[in-house]
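Notes to self after the call with IL:
- keep both proteins in one doc
- input above output, always
- annotate only the second one for now

Protein 1:
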Amino acid sequence: MKKQWCIPLLFLGVLCSAFPLEFRLDGGASRWGFSAPGDGISHTGKIGAPVSVTMTCELFNAPGVDRPVMPWQSWTGILMEDGENRYIGGLLCPGNRTPEVDYGAVVYEKRGNFSWKNSGRKFRLAAGPLVLRFSFDGKELVLEAGKSVNHLEVVWKKTPSHGFLPKRIGFVLDTAQAGSVMDRFAVHSFTVRGKGAAAEWNLSDQKSWRRDFLTLKPLGEKREVPCTDLTDRLNRELARKSVRIGRGCYTFGSVRMPEGASLIFEDGAELRIGDRSEIRILGDRCRIEGGLWNLECFSRKAPLLVGKKVSGVTVRGITVSGFGKQNLPRLGFDFAYFDSCADLTVEENRIAGVTDCFRFLNCRRVTVRNNRATDCERMTSFQNASEALLHTGNWSDRVRFQCQWWGGDADDRKAGVPKKSARLTFRKIKPGTPEYDPNTAGVYDIVLDRNIAENGMCLAWGSKGRNILISNNIARFMSDLAYDTEGGENVVISGNISINSKCAGIGGYFYGSRLLITGNQILVLNVGEKKFQGSFLRLHSPGNNTRFGNGKVLISGNQFINEVNPNALLLVEAARDVVIAGNTFSGGGIRLLAEAEHVVISGNTMETAGFQKNPLIGFSGNRLSSRILMNNLFRNPDAVDLPAVCSDERHTDGTLLLSGNWFESFRQEVLLKGSGVLKGNSPRSAAWNIGKWK
């Protein structure tokens, strides 16, 4: 009689009793549409359902890494497929190298339709061995995980495509990125139970189990992909102006590019970057393009691409596989560094795991466009008397500052910053001249347009910039502000979207003058982590308003929407000559502190939310200045027990005018202490507490 259940042996039978099987990601090509590596073993036959696969595995430290990590966009787990659909249940690393990865699955449905299926549960790779069980009962795929077979929890479920019936099972280690390396992933055991035609599956049977993707090797065996050193060839042929490198693995040391030289790496060219690797651009009109640049063996802090006093350089289409975010503070590595250069273009590059992708000091006419960056400190750093930057069409994830400009420190209270220099910059004073000071050099003429940033600190942030245009960008889940300027003059922030920035969507810090904030959408939504559900806008200063505060500020035509934070505000601290006009507020309001002088709030539509804890407009003190509220509409649809307008006891010295405002559904429209003038307002009730008001 035919047996219905199969109970195989430990993975590779007797072999596994001595040491586990090791998998490794490095060169090769995926059969599923990626030009990328992979490794695995599988069994094809009449498997049927139900079927359950249990595996114990462990990831060890790669050489030079202090903790286990998985490569960028990689996955590992148990495979089930039926010829059209493939499901791999296990661990996912959708981002860059990290010690903590997701439970979930990779799905290829209908011949290569690829997708990630994250469970929202995490596994720390340093936690030691992991037991995975992937089963199919004929209706549902279930992934379980735990530290032992007796302590498994369900971490992911899915109903597969109609008619799914496994014909192939196995183990897979794969990545979407060519050239990623992961050493010492060990499989300690692999057990299959299921209904099928075979009475027993013996995994040591070479005929029944197929080795897929790359070659499997026992623990301790070393397999290296041979690489060709290009140093001599590049230095020789670049003197003749043009070099094109085809598919293969390469290394190089110190390379010099003379005027007009072109270095192009074709698809499939991988560069293993070591401590001696450097490309120094010595002449104008040079071009570097293409290739996968793998920095796994690179440990020094010096930049890789260096140009000084050159012009017309293009860096295009390079993919950089970096160190991982956990190593950034130690490494401090710039991928490309330009000093005193002009007419530079960096475009369509893909950078991961470095400190600064592109750093420019005292440079002019720089274009940074259509690049992508993950797990970096900065994509673009524009510093020290630089002029004319176009930063456009870029995307970043887990990058602290997508674009940062630095023309000096705007806080002259600090040691080493010239006293009374908060408002000062001196254009066209070059580094190295007697008059030059890095805190008064400034940066000039910067355009940031149509960029997207996620999970960073700021999309756009800088100090002592002059003539700054920030427009048409999208930022979500920023740990500080989405768009911020310190010590800036002639700054326009327009047409941007901010979704959940921890401090505020927009900021103007320290000294600032002629700041226009218009047509933006600042959203505080009930999505993502709570820590990012911050405030609207902040004009901040640590000192008096004439020395530090923002002046000549127009905030107009913006939409401020808050769904969740009871304290979301447009906060004006030390500032002067501020107009807040024609904006809409929902679920938040405006607060003026004592040093906010000469402020006009006009023509705004302001609406409370049920969770709100602050009045729609609040005043804190006044220093002999004017505060004018006119022609605003205040609505209270949820009948929140808050006044629409409120001032404190210190509001006695200046002029406060409320004129032509309309109030709807407030039990107490106005709570005003101190003195002021009321003229032509339209309350719906008589509940006004106005103190010594006219």
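Protein 2 (the one to annotate):
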Amino acid sequence: MKSNNLKRAAALGLAALMLAPSATFAKEFKDVKKKNNKYSWAYDAIDKLSDNNIISGHPDGEFKPGEPVSLEELLQLIKQILRPSDQEIKTAKEKYSKIAKEKGVNSWAEDAICLALHRGYLDENSLKKASERGFFKISGREYPSRGDIAIFFARALQLSPNGNTNLLKHNDKDKMSDTLKGYLSSLVDAKIFTSTGSDGNFEGERSITRAETAIITKASFDYAEKNKIEAKTEKLKGTVILSSKLNNVNVVIIETKGSKYSFDIDSNTKYKLKDKDIKLEDIKAGQEVEIEYVKAKSGEREGTAKTITVTNAMLDMVGYVNSKGNNQITLRYRDNSDSINFRTTSKISTSDTKTFDLDKNVKIKAYGKDLKLEDIAVDDLVEFKTNSDNKITEMTVFPKEAYVKGQIISIENTNKDKASIKLKLSDGKTYEFYITNETKDLDRFSFRDEINIYVKYKVAMGLASNNEKDSNLMGEVIGYSSSESSFDYRNRYVVIKSSDGYQKTYYLANRFDIKDYNGARKTQVTENYLRGKNVLLSLNSYGEVDTITIVDSNLKFSAMFQVVSREDVGFNNNRFYKIGLRVIQSDNARLNPGKTLYFQTGQKLELFEVLSLDGYLNYDGEIIADSNNRSLGNPREYLDSASGTTRKNDFKDYKYFLTNNRPTYNNRTNQYNGGVGQYWIIL
């Protein structure tokens, strides 16, 4: 008996894959038989879908059930399962047709790709990754994994991402990402996937076959027939053109980006102004509104409005950066008020998202410095004001991560709810940064000390590294995932804890290596293996990790140094200095107190300056990587040194070493006379 739902689905217009390249549809296939055949398990599904012209075979009469299926084909199948309206396809293409073409999507699959982006089971970043990996190529095509496909089907069918993982009985369950486990559990519960796989394994990393796809597609059609899958509500912002009766029907018409959209109004429609209920009569031409609506299946209207919210010109707002364009910035924002708690590094709640034009005289500042639009990063916190044209006139930026140098004006730490540090910065103004339970290393500083701190938004996290660009690229692994997902790069990451206690997440490149310290490449590395190991990270130009190097923990060090010599070795306008660093105290025997190392740097370190840094040595005792590099002060004289290596927890404040037993210094040669050996390193 043929499914009515299947009858309603049109044949897929795919290019020589799930559909036959000829006009003849094969109902019986030479390579798929009901009994005594390798693919007999898929016969009923293939037969049903073929009967309803959903899939077909090749001109030679074969179905080729073992061949892989492309991303475009699968999304086309999902489109047929969802049966979107013509109006929804039109809207989806208006939004996403341009990016689909830019990423090389084949024209026959454009509708399916745009719908996937529109409904959210495919995002733009995943589309970009798919294009980069060759998913849309005709020759040399890459194919999506079974894990990817499971996630697509689950999201398209609006299944829960947090299914009951106890339903999964696969032998390779531990190899699945948490995201895949959640969605696959929901698919198993919906009887679209089995709980064990065909042979006890899910095999999430391999491509999916035509036979497997037939099974999943048939089950998805059955599920969609029993469970109404509504098109999600949409939101659209624009300027009101008309709010009145049109042909005896209440309508609101808005204009956005030069296009007009009409919405039906019914008795269930709600009207809002800053979370206050208003009436239809309060909706006036010229107002800026946001309309939440359910898409119409057909007709002249865009849909039926559920909520119409009036958005006024804003005077004082706060939010986060979503993206930037040509003299434009897209922000997630809300009203700024005293009720907002900026003492947490977690996200403040936002209510709206909008793209703002910048006024031609816009002023953008961060910690007293003038900025340009290109200096602002995604997820930076901004406080901003707009004029009557809704253009941003002022913007104060609080970066997600930044390094701020200034003089301490005050430290308040007696009341945890009011704890803060105030610094006078280079512009001569005073800025306040909050001290929280996450703040480290600021307790030993006092009024008028010069200090360089690491901040997240408005919160002081602790002392900053002088090596800002490459700080914290080494540390102990506390988290790792190399998820099989081909699309979501955020499922592939390594989390390290640096020596100063900060945790930082780095995303992995498409192709990355894990190596031993001796250069040997390691394969099939698990999180359990990496967790707790000390590593060095190498980043590519996109800031993604392309190499993880496991280092010998015996080569790790924490030490205090003093600048004992400085020689200008630059030429023309290039300033370079040969710096001599004497070890004052150290927790590694390869850096015995008294030892002097030399290096070249563009950083103008002062004679006598005391530095603290953590890092890793090579087997020759040379520093190859460092973090938590910070200045502790300048005593203006030479320090004594510790009598030997010790634990970091037993380190003394540098002032402890200001004794009468000082090293000698040769003013004629501008060299420190003392120390154990001399070593040259170029940093």
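Annotation: Residues 1-26, 465-472, 674-683 have pLDDT under 50 and may be disordered. Residues 555-680 form one domain.
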